[in-house]
């Protein structure tokens, strides 16, 4: 079992097979497919994808739980499917820069958008990646029509480095200086890590 991270609004838990059915249902939504640049998968393919995420050292994914939706007490290792609202991912597969991490965020549940859950989840993932994977540059590739996501990343200090008209995608980056690292760690505050 991997680690779970608890913030003030969310808990990030490892992507478990118990999450796959809900995740698969999310990914039938044309809006989510468009905003995430994803292709629809069969349920079996989704189970295979979940397994690959748990086994690939160059990928890190967490399911986002809304703390307000957790039934009872949080127990590390339990999937808490009832509180699933999205996911946050990190890819560390740039062959030219092993310390570059590409981050993705999805708040899939419409009722959970606009509450700061995505921002807190991204901040927690950034802090986790700095501490555990020694990431020194973060990259986010976002559809150019996804204003909410673009605005959130820009507010976090990410700067546009390119725009692809062909893919209709904006690439943003955030270099991690010592000062930025300290700032990010302060922003996440009293994040609790369970292992």
What does this structure look like?
The chain contains six helices and nine strands, in the order ββαααβββαβαββαβ. The mean pLDDT is 92. By secondary structure, the chain is an alpha+beta fold. The protein starts with a strand and ends with a strand.
Please report the total strand number as a whole number. Answer: 9
Counting DSSP H or I runs of 4 or more residues, the number of helices is 6
What is the rounded distance between the termini? 7 Å
Shape: globular
The strand order across the widest sheet is 7-8-6-5-4-3-2-1-9
**Main sheet, how many strands, which sense, barrel?**
9 strands, mixed
Q: What percent of residues adopt helix (DSSP H or I)?
A: 25-40%
What is the alpha-carbon Rg in Å? 16 Å
Secondary-structure-derived class = alpha+beta
- Return the string of H and E elements: EEHHHEEEHEHEEHE
Q: Summarize model confidence as the mean pLDDT.
A: 92
Which strand-content bin applies to the residues? 25-35%
Poorly predicted runs are none
List the helices and strands and how they pair.
Blueprint lengths: L3 E3 L3 E5 L5 H7 L3 H7 L6 H13 L3 E8 L17 E8 L8 E8 L9 H17 L3 E7 L3 H9 L3 E6 L4 E7 L2 H11 L3 E3 L1
Parallel strand pairs: 5-6
Antiparallel strand pairs: 1-2, 1-9, 2-3, 3-4, 4-5, 6-8, 7-8
């Amino acid at each position: 079992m991997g680690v779970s991270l608890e913030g003030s609004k969310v808990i990030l838990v490892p992507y478990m097979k118990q999450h796959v059915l809900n995740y698969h249902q999310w990914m039938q939504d044309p809006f989510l497919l468009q905003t995430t640049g994803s292709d629809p998968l069969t349920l079996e393919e989704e189970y295979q994808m979940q397994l690959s995420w748990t086994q690939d050292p160059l990928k890190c994914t967490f399911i986002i739980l809304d703390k307000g939706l957790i039934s009872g007490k949080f127990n590390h290792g339990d999937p808490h499917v009832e509180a699933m609202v999205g996911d946050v991912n990190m890819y560390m597969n740039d062959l030219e820069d092993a310390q570059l991490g590409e981050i993705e965020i999805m708040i899939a549940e419409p009722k959970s958008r606009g509450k700061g859950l995505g921002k807190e989840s991204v901040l927690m993932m950034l802090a986790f990646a700095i501490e555990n994977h020694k990431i020194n540059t973060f990259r986010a590739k976002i559809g150019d029509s996804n204003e909410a996501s673009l605005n959130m990343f820009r507010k976090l200090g990410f700067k546009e480095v390119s725009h692809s008209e062909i893919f209709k995608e904006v690439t943003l980056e955030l270099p991690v200086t010592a000062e930025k690292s300290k700032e990010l760690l302060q922003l996440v505050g009293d994040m609790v890590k369970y292992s």
